[in-house]
Structure formats: C-alpha cells, structure tokens
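Supplementary Note 2. Why include the ligand at all?

Several targets in our set were suspected to adopt different conformations when bound, so apo predictions alone were not considered sufficient. For every target with a known small-molecule partner we therefore ran a joint prediction. The input for cobalamin is given below.
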Amino acid sequence: MPLHRPASTRIKAKAAELGFELCGIAPADDLPELSFFAEWLARGYAGEMQWLTRTAARRADVRAVVPGARSVIVTGTLYNVDRPYSTEERDPAVGLVSRYAWGDDYHDVIGRRLDQLLAWMREEAAEPFEARAYVDTGPVQERVYAQYAGLGWIGKNACLINERIGSWLFLSEIICSLPLEPDTPAFDRCGTCTLCLEACPTGAIVEPHVIDSNRCLSYLTIELRGDIPEEHRAALGAHVYGCDVCQDVCPYNQAAPASDDPAWQPRPSLDRPRLADLWRMPDAELRRVTKGSAMTRAKLPALRRNVAVALANAGRPLDLEAADPARPSAGDPMVRRHVGSSAGTPPAVSVPRDVRSG
Ligand code: B12
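The joint prediction is reproduced in token form.
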C-alpha cells in the first residue's frame, strides 16, 4: 500500500519496530510556541551558543529547512536506566554525569535508526518526496513539534514530558513533504507543581517553561568553553557533565520505566566516577572512556575544569601542580584558573520527602 493515507499508522508501527518508544505526527504549520525562540534569543538566554543565533531563521519553521514540508514525524526514545537519581547521591566525592550521557552517543544510535525509518518510507512511498532527518543537531525546535505530535507537553522545566514515560526521552524527527495525518497535541499536565523551579541549583528556570542557559548547569558544564562564573561555582556541586536535577525532582519521573536497550546502559567508568580518579586520569584515558559517548561534546579542558570545581565543592580543593605530560589539558590556563576555586559549599538541593522514596 503506497505511503499516502492512512500512512501515519504504518510509519508509527515501523518506528516502534525500530526501537522508538514514541512516534507521532505534527503538522508543519505556524505553531504559536515557535515564535518564542526569537524572544528567548533577544533576552540573551542562549549564552555563547552562537550556533543557535546563526540558525535562528531556519529554527523558526521547518518549512525553512524543507521547502514544501507538510508533516514532521517526531520520535521519542527512552534512555532512562534503573539507577539512583543525582538528587539521591550522598557522596560529594562522586562526579555527577547526566544519565543521557552514560551510554553510547544518542546522535549516532538514533541517527542510524532514523535513517532506517526514512529509507523504509522511501521504499514504501508511491512517489518521491522531500525529507530531512535530524536528532538534536538540526535547525528544528524539536520540543514544540514533539508537543504537537502528541508525544507529551513542554513542562515548566522546558523538557518534553510524556505522561506515561516521563521526560527521560531523546527526541528526533523526519521533516517531510508527505501530507500525513497529524496527531492531537498533548496538553500541559504540570498544573500547580513547581518542584523543578524550586530545585534548580542556580535558578536557571527563570519562569515556567523558560530556561536562561547562562545559569543552567548543563550549559555551564557542556557548552561553555571558558571560565565558569564565580557566582555559579558552588551551585555546580559535583556536576561534571550536564545536570538532571530539574528532571530528577519531576513527579512524572518518579515511576519512570527503565530501558533495557544496551545503548543506554552506563559505561563502568562513567557510572558514579570518583572525582579524584577523573582528575588523575591521563588525557588519553579520559578520551578512551568518553569515546563514542555524548560526553565528547565537552572538550577535555572543560571536563577538567568541571572536575576541579567539583573537587573544591567537595572540600578537596586541588593545589596548582607542575605540568604533567600525560595530562596536558590539566595545564590549560583556563583549567588552572579553576584549580582550588570554590565560593564555599554548594547549596543542598531541596527534594521534598515524598517525591522519590516516599
Ligand atoms: C539549545 C539546547 C539546550 C541548551 C538550552 C536549553 C533550552 N531550554 O533551550 C542547554 C545546553 C542549556 C540544554 C540543556 C539540556 N538539554 Co538540550 N537542547 C538544546 C537544543 C539543541 C535546542 C533547544 C531550543 O531550541 N531552545 C530554545 C528555547 C526557546 O526552547 P525551549 O527552552 O525548549 O523553550 C520552548 C518552550 O519552553 C516554549 N516556551 C517558552 N515559553 C513558553 C511559555 C509557555 C506558556 C509555553 C507553553 C511554552 C513556552 O517555547 C520554546 C519553544 O522552543 C535541543 C534540540 C533541538 N534541536 O530542539 C536540545 C534538547 C532540548 N535538549 C535535551 C536535553 C536532554 C537536555 C538536558 C536534559 C541535558 C542534561 N541532562 O544536561 C538539559 C535540560 C535543560 C532544560 N531544562 O531545558 C533534549 C530534550 C528532550 C526532552 N525530553 O525534552 C533535546 C530535545 C535534544 C534531543 N534531541 O533529545 N539544551
């Protein structure tokens, strides 16, 4: 049966077969939330992420990316695994790595599955059609299309939350010129809850649904290449790559299912790594243990910087050391400006008793 109506159901069935937990169709229309992006940029909330500003025009609408686009097939992939949340970690000497980065790099894993889905659609289609597939790196506001594809709603922590699965979801999409049956948008189920806003260590959720990246620990530990502002160093706590706090406290993640997909299972070296071990690790070893994981997005000096601040926050500030040929990144002037640096002890993340362990 050619891929016209009702192709949507067949595409979703194929997506499920390929390992996507969620799949829905959004119309390539004027979706109101898309317009917020320009306002967000104007407020300076993108920090130093120039790549967002440079692609702003295309990010405003997928039809600027695929002329003739009619539909956006959005897929959601569960990456949660059965491990304690960062808010439950009690040992300050353990480095916190976000759970999305524990396993294989999702850009590679999901990119392959998305290409398989698109290849299948091309085989099935009655005639050729325009299409582009993206996971994270495309000039697309993925969360907005995911909401209109019925995968979930954009929570107050700006994460896409699915009522059944929670927000431990990677998003990816195929923008295409096929006139597919769109799904019903999911509606907002955050209600009066503000746990994420309260728990964010730096107050980066400046208002519901709005993140000021300049304050977000995920931005500060991954995207920022230079010095972490003094005012945020204590709040960084033990975070060495990304931050899960606003998701850890979310009620919709308290009974989140775990994936048994080998791709997302934690690598032993990234599973509750000790800060001192990470600092002592030679650059070659650090490259080896992060190879093929999303952690390669932060370059070695940034990772060393994060570890240096986290060690100081754990009350074990490093001393300036002689250059170590096995760890040239530790000698980076930017890193040395963070050695021994901490503005006092990190604020405790306030997690109301009943949220997790009841
Ligand atoms: C730039 C970026 C970041 C930046 C900026 C964060 C941000 N909120 O934008 C930084 C580096 C800080 C970041 C951090 C993280 N990111 Co990121 N990131 C992106 C990226 C590349 C672009 C997002 C974007 O366009 N931001 C622009 C702003 C304006 O969008 P927004 O904050 O989402 O706001 C939307 C809504 O809030 C809404 N909105 C705004 N105001 C209002 C008001 C109302 C009333 C309503 C209803 C809506 C609304 O409009 C906006 C529409 O875009 C996307 C991939 C993509 N191509 O979309 C991944 C993406 C959003 N990130 C992702 C992840 C996993 C993370 C982290 C959890 C990683 C981690 N653990 O450290 C954190 C979470 C931080 C957070 N709470 O958002 C996933 C999210 C999956 C999900 N379930 O939501 C994505 C989709 C990547 C992927 N393909 O899986 N990220």
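The radius of gyration is 21 Å. Residues 7-81+104-176 form one domain. Comparable summaries for the other entries are listed in the accompanying table.
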